[in-house]
Amino acid sequence: MKWQKKTFLVLTVICTVSLLLHHGGHFTWNMEAFHSSYSHQSTGTKPKHTNIVFLKTHKTASTTMQNILFRFAERNNLTVALPVQACGHQFCYPRSFSSHFVHLHTLRPNLITNHMRFNKTALQRLMPNDTIYITILREPASMFESLFTYYSRHCMSFRRVPNGSLEAFLAEPLRYYRPEETESMYARNTLTFDLGGDKDHPLKDLSYVKNFVAEVEKVFSLVMISEYFDESLILLRHLLSWDLEDILYVKLNMRTESSKKRLSPGLPEKIRAWNSIDAYLYDYFNASFWVKLSELGLDSVAKEVQLLRQAQERLMRSCFGGKTPLPRAAAEIKNKDLRPWQPSDKVDIVGYDLPVNLSQEAQEHCLKYIMPEISYTRILLHSQSLRHRRNYQNRPPQKSHTLQQHIRTTLPRHSQVHRNPPAPSVVQSAASGTESRSTPKQSEGTTKLGL
Ligand SMILES: Nc1ncnc2c1ncn2[C@@H]1O[C@H](COP(=O)(O)OS(=O)(=O)O)[C@@H](OP(=O)(O)O)[C@H]1O
């Protein structure tokens, strides 16, 4: 009897320790178990779509979305078009996008997502024919408050305002705003500008706005809405035949509560009047967004959102040991790659750190969820450059002039396919600016989607 009691006790201790290790903590994170818990949430047998333009608009949760796309690209060994060094981490924004801004080691891309001013013609030449275009919009009042605070030091229209007062700016915007200044796109109709439109077009010319909206609708298969980010991801998942695992995320680029201004009564209306084209755009696509959700079935969307949030919670527990990663002031973050860019000492952008004692496997996986845009762009450029060089060196000389490259547009499910490297002839001529198929010269200052 005594012997049986002892055995029982020993077994109980072993089970408890094992349970704690597997479920209670993030210290022994099990990649296989993690993946298998999502893999059944797929959209069926359709291959995943991989050729995507995501127009990264400003202050719309676009960094969170970009991070989703970067991770998808890495997992599936895809090529992301990235900016040349001279452009910084954006495609020479606010200039209109040109393929000359694309780093030659990232040519023949599947995806493009870094900030740019949209130019349909240039993108169509750069990207495969079956590319799907996606963008995101945010409600103009909260977006403008975010822009006003974030760019208070960088945008002259905002710097001129006494005491950085949003109320003062909106009382007499034309007193502070100069349309010709380089950073003026942050101060009026930013969404319209990012989409290649004319931010200063008079609203009384309603036909311009209607045509502009119609063009956006023609090009973009999905216009996500920031306020309904999770619902937008469900639409995205269906559009691209992605799995639930592909749309998991951590919120990035958030301001701390103390960095936000409260909008006093009447201000949202003034913001909408000042940004009237953006307001029109938002209202239109917010309405069509709900039509799309209804087509999918509101109940089924709600169920999928619930599944997404449960999966997020599991991810957060596995990676960060809590409901969300612990927000940190940038200076407190030990790993410098994880410090988000701070626009000024008056605005705090939240960043995250990884918990200590995380296993190597978990570190690699979890790190990318919280990687800020600038660091991730740099890391991705580095890894893609290495791959480019490797492929270029290993390529047999007789095959080096094949221009008819196979560009993968969809992915077989649950497999890693290695993509053909870009043909050296294309890369070399693109670098010298003479390759006419994918690197045309673009005129700037385009309106109406750069047409
Ligand atoms: N998932 C999700 N859902 C809703 N909102 C979110 C999400 N992720 C980020 N955010 C908010 O988006 C704002 C940052 O936007 P961007 O990343 O597009 O900014 S940037 O232009 O790239 O600097 C920033 O808004 P503000 O905090 O109001 O500035 C973030 O809090």
Automatic annotation (TrEMBL):
Keywords: Glycoprotein, Golgi apparatus, Membrane, Signal-anchor, Transferase, Transmembrane, Transmembrane helix. One of its GO terms (cellular component) is Golgi membrane. InterPro entries: Gal-3-0_sulfotransfrase, P-loop_NTPase. Residues 426-451 have a biased composition (Polar residues). GO terms for biological process: glycolipid biosynthetic process. The keyword Transmembrane applies. Residues 412-451 are annotated as: Disordered. It is a single-pass type II membrane protein. It is found in: Golgi apparatus membrane. GO terms for molecular function: galactosylceramide sulfotransferase activity. Gene3D superfamilies: P-loop containing nucleotide triphosphate hydrolases. It holds the Pfam family Gal-3-0_sulfotr. Belongs to the galactose-3-O-sulfotransferase family. This is Galactose-3-O-sulfotransferase 3. It comes from Fundulus heteroclitus.
